[in-house]
Design brief:
Largest sheet: 4 strands, mixed
Number of helices: 1
Radius of gyration: 11 Å
Shape: globular
Strand order of the largest sheet: 1-2-3-4
Number of domains: 1
Distance between the termini: 27 Å
Number of strands: 4
């Protein structure tokens, strides 16, 4: 199964939604999980964390 966890907050982020996203990923063994949110210092870009890819 392919899963996309998306948030409008900056990821990676300490606490809150970031901890939840990591926990879900670990529990999703055997599934393909992507984490998507705004990209750290570059708040005008979307960041796909596990692929280290940024989208304008």
């Amino acid at each position: 199964m392919r899963i996309l966890l998306a948030t409008y907050w900056v990821v990676p982020h300490m606490g809150g939604v970031w901890n939840y996203m990591l926990q879900i990923t670990l529990e999703s063994l055997g599934h393909e999980v992507d984490l998507l949110g705004y990209g750290g210092d570059e708040r005008n870009r979307i960041h796909i964390v596990n692929e280290n890819r940024k989208i304008e």
